[in-house]
Amino acid sequence: MDKDRDNLWSRRTNTSSHGRNNPFNSVTPLSTSGISSPTTGASGAFGLGSGAFASFGSATKTPKTPGTAFDFAKAVVGTPSSANSAEKKDGDDKKSFARKVAPVTTTPRPTASQSIESAARGNDSPWPLKYTWVIWYRPPTSKNSDYEKSTRPMCKISTAQQFWQVYSHLKHPSGLPTVSDYHFFRDGIRPVWEDEENKKGGKWILRLKKGVADRYWEDLLMAMIGDQFAEAGEEVCGAVVSVRSGEDVFSIWTKNDGGRNVKIRETIKRVLSLPADTNMVWKSHDDSITQRSAIDQARQEKTGHHGERRRNQNQSSTGNASGEEKAAA
């Protein structure tokens, strides 16, 4: 038996290419030194230019990917059963062995902020947000148009899945026309100063250079729907991004003038990874209303002066014509 096995092995090893040398011996090993990475030279996910400030906004900073703001519980992963007849062989022995082994589950242990019920949910189940949010849009309009009437609600969001379904189809701020606005407000709060939830509050104003609003707008929305403001979340009414010709302006509206506004400002700096010396200006809605009233009054006076000057010019022209007619007579 051993002798026959040795002969069989010899015949297998000596038989190659009809007695010739193995043709694959002459093939040189494949070198990977000349193969470039498929990501070589690839641009970032967003064309962000030089950044909002000197110390950030470069292309090396990648935006957050969808889902990072939510702590989704992993679904229980089970070992799929096989229908292969070969794997069913000795099935009785495997079942007997399985009874002796404790089952292993991949469901994570709920944290302090998760209930056991939510930890057992799958990714396909609706994941409700703490608040329901409404996205409003204000297209470019004339200065004399009514602000509230020109700002229209687009959709309402109450789950994480709805947010990504809507956000993935919305234009980024960089794709909006100049002098247009996105408003992201809690349901039941109108994006106007006079609303009951807004009139006692104000807003934090952050001015950004062109080219970085997309990333920071996404980060800000993620912080708002992900309840990153913690105990100050009740004070946050909404946020606005205003697209202008030379800059993009963020406005985070708060419920009260005072209160937890400092906490809100520091949270904004943290979630957006802003430099410590970033200049954020606070402005109460009362000041905004006063300023708007002064602008409207000045505009009306200017319009009145133009009308009076036009009337005087018309009267002067009429008087000159009458004088010329009398002279001709």
Automatic annotation (TrEMBL):
<keyword id="KW-0694">RNA-binding</keyword>
<keyword id="KW-0648">Protein biosynthesis</keyword>
<feature type="region of interest" description="Disordered">
    <location>
        <begin position="1"/>
        <end position="44"/>
    </location>
</feature>
<dbReference type="InterPro" id="IPR001040">
    <property type="entry name" value="TIF_eIF_4E"/>
</dbReference>
<comment type="similarity">
    <text>Belongs to the eukaryotic initiation factor 4E family.</text>
</comment>
<feature type="region of interest" description="Disordered">
    <location>
        <begin position="285"/>
        <end position="329"/>
    </location>
</feature>
<dbReference type="GO" id="GO:0000340">
    <property type="term" value="F:RNA 7-methylguanosine cap binding"/>
</dbReference>
<dbReference type="InterPro" id="IPR019770">
    <property type="entry name" value="TIF_eIF_4E_CS"/>
</dbReference>
<feature type="compositionally biased region" description="Basic and acidic residues">
    <location>
        <begin position="86"/>
        <end position="96"/>
    </location>
</feature>
<keyword id="KW-0396">Initiation factor</keyword>
<dbReference type="GO" id="GO:0016281">
    <property type="term" value="C:eukaryotic translation initiation factor 4F complex"/>
</dbReference>
<feature type="compositionally biased region" description="Low complexity">
    <location>
        <begin position="101"/>
        <end position="112"/>
    </location>
</feature>
<dbReference type="GO" id="GO:0003743">
    <property type="term" value="F:translation initiation factor activity"/>
</dbReference>
<dbReference type="InterPro" id="IPR023398">
    <property type="entry name" value="TIF_eIF4e-like"/>
</dbReference>
<dbReference type="Pfam" id="PF01652">
    <property type="entry name" value="IF4E"/>
</dbReference>
<feature type="compositionally biased region" description="Polar residues">
    <location>
        <begin position="10"/>
        <end position="40"/>
    </location>
</feature>
<feature type="region of interest" description="Disordered">
    <location>
        <begin position="80"/>
        <end position="123"/>
    </location>
</feature>
<protein>
    <recommendedName>
        <fullName>IF4E-domain-containing protein</fullName>
    </recommendedName>
</protein>
